[in-house]
Amino acid sequence: MRQKQLLLDTHIILWMIMGDERLSQKARDLIKENLGSIYYSIASMWEVQIKYALKKLPISGIEFMHYCEQSGYHKLTIDDSHVIELAGLKRDESAPAHNDPFDRILLSQAKAEGFTFLTHDPFFRAYNEPCLVEA
User: Which pTM was predicted?
Assistant: First the structure.
């Protein structure tokens, strides 16, 4: 079976770190099946660091990065193709507002790289992107 290249949403990694029960068996299986082809975004590290500084998370961006590195995940930096891809993201007109810039850059990174984006966030449903997998 060919491995998928997975980009993990920030909360998926945080749930793994914290042993959160909200991490579905589907997500666990996908991650296990695709070890060696798992990516985390520098945008997630940035998001975690901001939330840590605001005292909304118990771990820093550096701790987040160390967890990802120790787990064998590959770091995905942000480049111009990812930013350009933002313009191509379309949402259903009737969808509720989705004002999280971290979410949008993560989705555009996955789309630009041809990765599968693993998330649990229902806001992504309205994008109807083939790279999305909801766990």
Answer: 0.92
